[in-house]
Write a structure and sequence with these properties.
Layout: H1 2-13, H2 30-43, H3 45-48, E1 52-54, H4 58-75, E2 82-83, E3 90-91, H5 113-138, H6 143-154, H7 157-160, H8 166-173, H9 175-187, H10 191-207, H11 210-227, H12 233-250, H13 252-264, H14 273-277, H15 326-337, H16 341-358, H17 363-370, H18 384-403, H19 407-429, H20 440-467, H21 474-487, H22 489-492, E4 498-500, E5 521-523, H23 525-531, H24 546-552, H25 558-561, H26 578-594, H27 599-604, E6 607-613, E7 629-633, E8 640-642, E9 645-647, H28 652-660, E10 668-670, E11 681-689, E12 692-699, E13 703-707, E14 715-719, E15 722-724, E16 727-729, E17 733-738, E18 741-749, H29 752-787
Parallel strand pairs: 5-6, 9-10
Antiparallel strand pairs: 1-4, 2-3, 6-7, 8-13, 11-12, 12-18, 13-17, 14-15, 14-18, 16-17
């Protein structure tokens, strides 16, 4: 009988051995949450005060314009079906890049936009910190270690580097909340935990960031396997799958139109190998997990920092910082050297993410690409985020063991810190700088300061590891938080760099353009001249002030930040409709071959102003006031007109050659509408909103109305209330046949999949709420019977 009992109990002995009960401080439960929020507020104090704002990289070039477009369209009292501001018009709500249905994004609808845009970013830093607090507490760690982990996650270098990559920042903020919900679901399954799990999955799904979502689901699966009790794994896997399915249904309002939009966009063809494998993380960069910006300290072959030469076609990393922080780094190394279980598991779980992040540097990514699994994913380096999260969790478990009195671990961690200090000091004091234009004396001084900074951080870390014994006092925790803040401060001066509030006000060039901004479009010659490698663009850019130059010249999407509509824009996120991308590509090819931009095409696209480089470098004043470009007024244009001639459609090389030869005439339309000799007439705009256009047209016979709005299958047209077909016109735009006489023409854009997805989302939400209420009612009834 005893033998049978021992055999029966043997599997239980292999389960995870819980940590000794941690000695807790006398803090109330809410104090760590207040500390996290307070530290975030201090870190971004000048932004919260409205003095400065985040601006770097994609923030000013991409996210700020897109959020402004969303706010502008909704501010006009219309549902954001259509975006009239970029590339002659594109779908808005169907494109997840706008985050139309993501509730925290609605903060940008509040005035003033510039302030709430910044605030909704900082809000997610708090959400991330609070989520880490809750999750690590759920894993059994002490409040002191949980607080350290929350601050190391939310204010650490990797997460702060995502301040310029908002979909990743937002999606990763919900990861610890997701894992907390998973743990609740498998340890205390009920309708309430099922619903919470589904809501968090839904929030991540609404963001439309597939790589973080996949990593989150993998970690959720790992957690279920690890935490499931004997005999309950199957039940827990079913619960996990059900909650994920419910979360996806909650996000149907975004996912249904997004999938449909992807089929109409350039993503339908998949990415080339060059695009898919671009931003593959070099293996050597893993060293940056343990020492910050090590490859930025020394110059590379091209004269810039060494990191700039590690990525083909790029000058920097996609995830710019992967440094874990000195305290997590040294305790994780100590855990590995002493073969600590948590450290081993963390490395094992993170290894698949690391392999994927290496991308083209190993055969795995090529194999996935050839199988078709990676053709719709860009930038493999994004998968390092899952690895960094797991390694931080492993480091926290090791730190907890040190605080619980493990002397061997403490000695090893101190030795690792001393080694970190020695290596870091040698690197810093031998640093000659990555910018050869800076005098060698200045670079050596910078290296000395960097070395002294490393000594300070290392000294604090050694003191913490030697004094933290079983009971972490409040002063010890305060010192640890100071170390984390000090350790990640370099991110605040680079990736999370600030600009004064005046940076987000309209540049001077905006006042030179007509105030009726919705009646014409811009075409940015200068942007494409620079992109095409025109040497005349070089004198207009100089190190140190490019941010102001790009802002002052409204390069890229920036014109939309100030309410200007544009056409033939660069498709930054590869979500543009295929017809608009086809015309843009033909324009670029014609420019390469002929040296000029086809004027009739610009006319048909309603371009009134072209933004061009100044003929010579007449730089005057400070960088924040100098204009590198000027606006050339081409005269009033027409977005809607009756074509004087109709020709068969042109595609590919035929379209390019026709542009090069200058054979495209004014008011000549290319379409398969079948009108041989279209009649002339007049067009009067009655009203125009993003989703609807009303026109009065007087035709002197059967005419053909050219509509200078990008064509899409959900645009519908009616003549005097009767539906008529729209024809693809001038490659990217659309047109319709107008009968003889005076007519009221209405064009309207509605995406029916948004309504269908909205119904699915609402029904799913009601079912989840109903399940929670029904369960609460049953519990109340059961308690009443017990009392009776």
């Amino acid at each position: 009988m005893c033998a049978k009992r021992r055999i029966h109990e043997r599997p239980a002995a292999k389960r995870r051995t819980p940590l000794p009960p941690p000695a807790e401080s006398d803090w109330p439960r809410y104090v760590p949450a207040l500390i996290v929020a307070g530290l975030v507020a201090v870190s971004f104090a000048e932004i919260l005060a409205g003095m400065n704002g985040l601006w770097a990289s994609d923030l000013s070039a991409y996210h700020h314009p897109l959020k402004q477009i969303f706010a502008s369209v909704v501010g006009q009292g219309t549902f954001p079906f259509w975006n009239p501001y970029l590339s002659g018009g594109q779908p808005l709500a169907a494109n997840p890049a706008f985050q139309t249905f993501y509730p925290p994004n609605w903060l940008v609808l509040l005035p003033p936009f510039a302030y709430w845009f910044q605030l909704h970013i900082i809000l997610h830093v708090v959400i991330a910190g609070w989520g880490m607090l809750v999750f690590t507490r759920r894993l059994g760690l002490s409040r002191a270690v949980c607080l350290i982990g929350a601050v190391a996650f939310a204010l650490g270098a990797p997460y702060l580097s995502l301040l310029v990559r908002l979909p990743f920042l937002f999606s990763l903020a919900w990861l610890p909340w997701l894992l907390t919900a998973v743990d609740h679901l498998i340890t205390k399954p009920c309708a309430r935990t099922f619903g919470i799990m589904a809501i968090v999955v839904g929030l991540q799904s609404l963001l439309g960031e597939p790589t973080v979502f996949v990593q989150s689901m993998v970690l959720a699966l790992v957690l279920v396997i690890w935490r499931s009790q004997e005999g309950k794994l199957r039940r827990n896997l079913i619960s996990l799958g059900g909650s994920i399915g419910a979360g996806v249904l909650l996000a149907a309002v975004q996912l249904l139109p997004a999938i449909d939009h992807a089929r109409d966009s350039v993503r339908a063809d998949g990415f080339t190998w060059q695009i898919s494998s671009n931003w593959s993380m070099p293996l050597s960069r893993l060293l940056e997990m343990f020492y910050p910006a090590v490859f930025r300290l020394f110059p590379g072959e091209a004269g810039q920092h060494a990191l700039s030469g590690m990525y083909p076609f790029r000058i920097d990393a996609y995830i710019s910082e992967i440094y874990l922080g000195i305290l997590p780094a040294v305790v994780l190394l100590a855990g590995l050297l002493t073969w600590h279980r948590a450290a081993r598991w963390a490395v094992g779980i993170s290894l698949p993410f690391i392999l994927l992040a290496l991308g083209s540097h190993i055969p795995v990514w090529r194999l996935l690409y050839d199988m078709g699994l990676a053709r719709s994913i860009r930038y493999p380096e994004k998968f390092i985020l899952g690895a960094l999260f797991v390694l931080l969790i492993g480091a926290l478990f090791v730190l907890q063991q040190i605080l619980n009195g493990d002397k061997a671990l403490r000695r090893t961690a101190v030795a690792m810190t001393i080694a970190w200090l020695v290596v870091g000091t040698i690197l810093a004091f031998s640093n000659t700088g990555a910018d050869p234009s800076v005098p060698i004396e200045v670079r050596r001084l910078d290296g000395t300061m960097y070395g002294l900074w490393a000594l300070l951080r290392g000294g604090v870390a050694i003191g913490l590891l030697m004094t933290g014994v079983h009971h972490a006092t409040k002063s010890w925790v305060a010192a640890a938080l100071f170390l984390i803040a000090l350790d990640s401060s370099f991110v605040h001066t680079r990736t999370a760099s600030r600009m004064p509030s005046s940076f987000f006000e309209p540049p001077a060039i905006a006042s030179e353009l007509s105030p009726q901004r919705d009646e014409y479009r811009l075409f940015h010659h200068a942007y494409w001249e620079d992109w095409l490698g025109d040497l005349s663009a070089d004198p207009h850019f100089a190190p140190g002030d490019n941010a102001w130059l790009l802002r002052n010249g409204m390069f890229g999407y920036r014109s939309a930040s100030w309410g200007f509509q544009s056409v033939f824009d660069d498709d930054i996120d590869q979500t543009g409709l295929r017809n608009s991308e086809e015309l843009r590509a033909a324009m670029l090819e014609a420019r390469r071959k002929s040296g000029f931009w086809p004027a009739p095409v610009l006319h048909a696209a309603d371009v009134r102003y072209t933004i061009e480089f100044r003929p010579e470098d007449s730089r005057q004043g400070s960088p924040d006031s100098w204009l590198p470009v000027f606006a050339r007024d081409l005269g009033a244009k027409e977005r809607y007109f009756l074509a004087r001639e109709l020709r068969p459609p042109l595609e590919g090389s035929a379209l390019v050659n026709t542009m090069v030869r200058g054979e495209i005439g004014a008011r000549v339309a290319y379409s398969d509408a079948g009108v041989t000799s279209p009649a002339s007439g007049t067009v009067t705009v009655v009203s125009e909103t993003p989703n609807r256009v009303e026109l009065d047209v007087a035709a002197e016979g059967n005419g053909f109305l050219v509509v200078g709005i990008t064509g899409h299958k959900y645009w519908k047209a009616g003549v005097d209330g009767t539906a008529v077909p729209l024809h693809r016109t001038n490659t990217a735009f659309q047109g319709l046949i107008v009968p003889d006489g005076k007519h009221r023409i209405v064009l309207e854009y509605r995406n029916p999949l948004i309504l269908m997805g909205g119904v699915v989302s609402i029904v799913t939400l009601l079912l989840l709420v109903g399940g929670v209420l029904l369960e609460a009612t049953r519990r109340t009834a059961a308690m009443s019977r017990v009392v009776d």
